[in-house]
Amino acid sequence: MLGPQEAVAYVEQLDVLGMRFGLRRMRALLVELGDPHLGRPSLHVVGTNGKSSTARLAAAAFDSQGRTSGLYLSPHVDGWCERIAVEGRPVDAECFAAAVGAVRAAAGRLRLAPDDGVTQFEVLTAAAFWVFAEWGAQAVAVEAGLGGRYDATNVLAPHAAVALTNVALEHTDLLGDSEQAIAAEKLAVAADGARPVVVGPMPPAAQAAVAAVAARRSLGLERVGREIHAGVVEGLVSVRTPRGAYHGLPLPLLGGFQRANLAVALAGAELALGMPLEEAPLARALVGVRLPGRLELLAGRPPLLLDGAHNPAGMAALCAALPEVLGPRRTVAVVSVLGDKDVRGMAAPLARACDYVVATRSAHLRAVEPDRLADLVREAGAPAVAAPDPWGAIAEARRQAGSDGAVVVCGSLYLLADLRSTLVGGAEQGGPNPPAILARATPRPAAPSA
């Protein structure tokens, strides 16, 4: 049996194998584990942005209806255990190690060629399904990693309901260079003739692309703004779907765009469960939803806002939310971006929204050099300086913001992973605590092999 450190070491060394699309290994691995992904209602969440928020909200909806939820997210901010949760609580290190150990043993029985071993994402996805089976999860929300068609999570059709949060141009070398091509890759997780796909709001070109793909495949759509509606009254959210209406719902996740994510989550949860939701327990469950590193506000002078916006659409959404979240104050950004992103497309909205930008770099090998990033921000119209050390960048941003301003840390989840645990530990305790860790009192036997 693997110990926690051994499990993390095994998962992290798989990174050298890189990304290899295809479902053959994943399906064989799940068979070897006893098909732990089957036998329960599931919501498969795909899209360019907003997947983690939507999946967390859907899992809370499942719990509220008396169904023990399973939740699979990617990527993580603070640690591998963050990716797998039951009843809203991430697994502890021992549970994660047991799951990874079971998957490693199953992978060993597949006798794969040395150059065709299981990938890191396949191991993590299989580990999540193993945990769900072990813990008796009764309904699960699964966030896709990249795309959909060849993503390791695409093993749930035709039984799962599908939610598409949005479509934007990203990873065009892998998913296609048009909204229609990307929509086709993401909608490939939906089975023809199955339940309708829930679709979040998106720009007209993306809407048209989704509609064209759906028409070609005879997929029904339930779209926010058409068949689904969300509104807000005195800080509480109302959602109406083809199956139910929900009023006065709390939404602790910051940003107006989270209302649309909630609408997608509730409609998707309804489809997965095959029934409308009971409103009172739903409202109670939503109060506790948290999402590290997504418009996460840390108290202090100045306060820090952490957000993993890592593509132009995500950066635009973050910048649009800043007046609502921070109010009219001087705003300074600390930003790092990976080189495979549209760096110029991310610099433009940031330059419009922030008074000053400190360009830095995360520990990731593909992080853009701070000098180049600062140049692009200045070209977009905002003053900027390069500070290669992230902690030096935070110090400079705090100095530039002053006690009455605010600092926004954004551009890459890898940057947040480098900084967040220390920043959260040093922040004033002004808000709710993060969810408790899910720890098993007594071990259960491993899932049976096929």
Describe this entry's structure for a reader.
By secondary structure, the chain is of the alpha/beta class. It folds into two domains: 4-286, 3-Layer(aba) Sandwich (UDP-N-acetylmuramoyl-L-alanine:D-glutamate ligase), CATH 3.40.1190.10; 296-424, Mur ligase, C-terminal domain (Protein-Tyrosine Phosphatase, Chain A, Alpha-Beta Complex). It contains 15 helices and 17 strands. The strands form three sheets. Strands 4-3-2-5-1-6-7-8 form an eight-stranded mixed sheet, sandwiched between helices. Strands 12-13-17-14-15-16 form a six-stranded mixed sheet, with helices on both faces. It has a three-stranded antiparallel sheet with strand order 9-10-11. Helix 13 (370-379) links the parallel strand 15 (356-359) and strand 16 (384-386). Helix 11 (312-326) packs parallel to helix 12 (343-353). The radius of gyration is 21 Å and the shape is globular. The model is unreliable at 428-435 and 437-450 (pLDDT under 50).
Structure described in brief:
The protein is α/β, with parallel strands linked by helices. It has two domains: 4-286, Mur-like, catalytic domain (UDP-N-acetylmuramoyl-L-alanine:D-glutamate ligase, 3-Layer(aba) Sandwich), CATH 3.40.1190.10; 296-424, Protein-Tyrosine Phosphatase, Chain A.
Output the keywords.
450 residues, alpha/beta, UDP-N-acetylmuramoyl-L-alanine:D-glutamate ligase, Protein-Tyrosine Phosphatase, Chain A, 2 domains, eight-stranded mixed sheet, six-stranded mixed sheet, 15 helices, globular, disordered C terminus
